[in-house]
Every structure is written in C-alpha cells, then in structure tokens.
C-alpha cells in the first residue's frame, strides 16, 4: 500500500472517515497530509478498533513521510478513548462533540497528543467560541452545523456560509470542512484562504463508502488550483 507521496503545494489536506484499503490507498497515493478515522458508532463512517489498527499498520509513520493519523471522537468517555488509543497508533485526536475546554485539557495531559477541536458554524457568534479553545486545542476545524434533530455532528454534506469568515482572525491554525467536494474545493480555498481542508462525504459514492476516484479528484483539484 505504501507509495511515494506526490509533491505538495497549497493547503494541507485531510481525508476523513476512511474505512477501506482502496480509499486509504488513494489518499496515500495522492499525498494527503492527514487521514482520519471515525470512532463513533452512530456514524456510517465508524470503524472498529481492530479494523483501524489493521489498516494503519500498512501506513508509513509521519516521521517516515506518511500522513498524520487522526482519530475522531464524539463526546467519548475515558473508557472509549483508552480502548482506541491503547490499540491504534494515532498522531492527533479530533473532538467533534460538545467537549468543553477542560475535557481537552485532560485529554492532552493524559495522552500527550495534539488536539483538533471541531466547531459547528452557522453564524458569527459560533466563531466566537473559537476563543474558548485557544489554550487547550492545537487546531480548530470549522464545520457546518448539523440539521435539527440529527444524532451525529458534522455538516451532512452541506457547507456553511463562507462569508462568515471574512475578516475573521483565528486564534489557532484552522481547517475548513463541511460540504466540500472535488467540484467546489478550489473555490472554497480561494474564497476563504483556508490553510487546510477536510473532506469526508464529498469523496464518497454512498454514505461511508469512499470513492478512490473522487479522492484523487479532490486532491488534484487543490494541487492544481
């Protein structure tokens, strides 16, 4: 599975919700900077601990030129976090639920890994919450707010209003997510000046099933922009 990584330029790229070898292989072949795996059972992208460990065993470590390995959690308790982190080699933790700053402080001290905190965005007030995490996270991920009544977070293939980012100054490095696809990612980067982008459903053939061709198209759209 390991292949030489392509020469990179432009924003950092995170392919999230990987569950299969062909999707992971496409992300590696095109030089994704970060790969994400979801440990949240309600998600169609949820992956078992054993499957995640097996897939990542085939991925070069970051120090050897491989991508950063990100584990995504949603309001996970200590037992759930311990079960994954003790078995799966991760480089970063992504918290995508309602975790307060003190929960991130604890996780950082407990596991010694950098942390990404996802924030649901639908208005300017949502961006103000970024300040709450300035001292306990390493990066922020800006995602669309989920539809009312949803049992899981995330944009559900929709984008938030990118004009909300006009003039906004992030307290931390940040990642743009929510509704990104091979067809709109170049425009999204141009419009927002995002230093990094994250995609999941936008490179799928159906929920939870990554399409290698769309992964390649997404990354190439960024590299050629």
Summarize the structure.
The protein is of the alpha/beta class and 225 residues long. The chain has 7 helices and 10 strands.
Q: What can you tell me about this protein's structure?
A:
The protein contains 7 helices and 10 strands. The chain is globular, with a radius of gyration of 16 Å. The protein has helices spanning 21-29, 49-56, 78-85, 101-111, 124-128, 185-192, 212-223; strands at 12-15, 34-38, 68-73, 92-95, 115-121, 139-144, 174-176, 196-199, 204-206, 209-210. It has an 8-stranded parallel sheet with strand order 7-6-5-4-3-2-1-8. It has a two-stranded antiparallel sheet with strand order 9-10. It has 225 residues and is of the alpha/beta class. The protein has a single domain (12-223), classed as Aldolase class I (TIM Barrel). Helices cover 27% and strands 20% of the residues. Helix 4 (101-111) links the parallel strand 4 (92-95) and strand 5 (115-121).
Low-confidence stretches: 1-5
**What form results from the Cα inertia axes?**
globular
Mean pLDDT: 92
Q: Which structural class fits the helix and strand makeup?
A: alpha/beta
- Tell me the count of domains: 1
- The CATH topology is given as TIM Barrel
The H-and-E topology, N to C, reads as: EHEHEHEHEHEEHEEEH
Please outline the major beta sheet: 8 strands, parallel
First and last CA, distance: 27 Å
Classified in CATH, the superfamily is: Aldolase class I
Helical proportion, percent range: 25-40%
